[in-house]
Amino acid sequence: MVKVTYRSISQISGPLLFVEKVGNAAYNEMVEITLPDGETRQGQVLDTSKDMAVVQVFGPTSGMDIKNTSVRFLGSTARIGVSEDMLGRIFNGLGQPIDGGPEIVSKDRVEIVGDAINPYSREEPSEFIETGISTIDGMNTLVRGQKLPIFSGSGLPHNVLASQIARQAKVKGSDEGFAVVFGAMGITSEEANYFINEFRNTGAISRAIMFLNLSSDPSMERIILPRVALTTAEYLAYEKEMHVLVILTDMTNYCEALREISSAREEVPGRRGFPGYMYTDLSTIYERAGKIRGKNGSITQIPILTMPGDDITNPIPDLTGYITEGQIVLSRDLQRKGIYPPVDVLPSLSRLMNQGIGKGRTREDHRGVADQLYSAYANGKDLRSLSAIVGVEALGENDRKYLEFADMFETRYVNQGLYEDRSIEETLDLGWELLSSLPESEMKRVKKEFIQKYGRWKRE
After folding, report:
1. Which domain of life is it from (predicted)?
2. What per-residue confidence (pLDDT) applies to 1?
3. Exposed (0-12), middle (13-18) or buried (19+): which is 168, by Cβ within 10 Å?
């Protein structure tokens, strides 16, 4: 195929080049842009029409001019070389090493624009992933092949939680390979150094692949990064039969980059200025998680997003909630109390929890304990609001016990150390210990046989 070079740029708008008189340009085709001083940059075809191609530049458009900048269409889509040698390495958003190590030599170069898993080929998730965090393992269980986002807010410790999950996550009762693919979009240099140091100092880097895009890097890299990360994860999962946990932070920065490009293309905006196709675009990322029949490997996703203005109805968390299987919600109120991780279990949800818990997976009493804890905590929070109006003295003895339970639940069950890795047995036993502060007659969501077996109430 002849690679033609064009000098017919009609307009430069933000990260976009509008190239005229282009024949047969393909959607997502890679291009090479040569600046007047000889410097080259990469780009990708974003849109094509009759005799016109819109090219998004992977990098700044400074130094380009319409007359002297040339564009060469390469005739292939974006690809990345993948290999097991990537484990323990750090890359930028385009998959290029930034840790001072050698380039990855690979026989396999695969397209980064992957496909969602065919629903017919999907296998139902069922294996429990232990994160060592009680609010997730006990109340909102993560299952292998699930996509479970974390809804956070600006200033909340979602990055600290992400590094803890990456460090501690493991498939319960499995000796198979487990890897973490960590992708960060639009983060500060301080955050990047935190992640690098945390992964290296704890040894988690040995089973992890990191892709980092800084806030000072081109926003176009943020569009590419999750696809590069997921393509790498698919190689490890389906070619090397590993269990892969993909953590993507911060999806809000990804969506902001999408809005920036949409605005540069002068598209009609949707809700809050985001493009109308954002739902479809997000689904091409989230739906690449799962298990495939006949393959031992799997991809589990934990996307993290900061809700603008702590608004859960914002299009980003709203659309994410539609596509994914639940959410972990971080609470600013819990953080103010000095509780880490500040996970609010009441609005949090794992829709696949029942598939991954119970006898043979976690423990037979898991479902009942989670329901009873949820019920008791919800009751305690309601009474906390009531006591603020009428005073604690106006509450009955039983109500005061629920009020005390809510405080104990937050300080002992929700709150745990940054390096505290609780087993599921420890989490469930702690749940029983807290429930024992309530009357046994209030245990209406747990089977009597489990109360007899695991309960902490004194019997005469």
Report:
1. Archaea
2. 53
3. middle
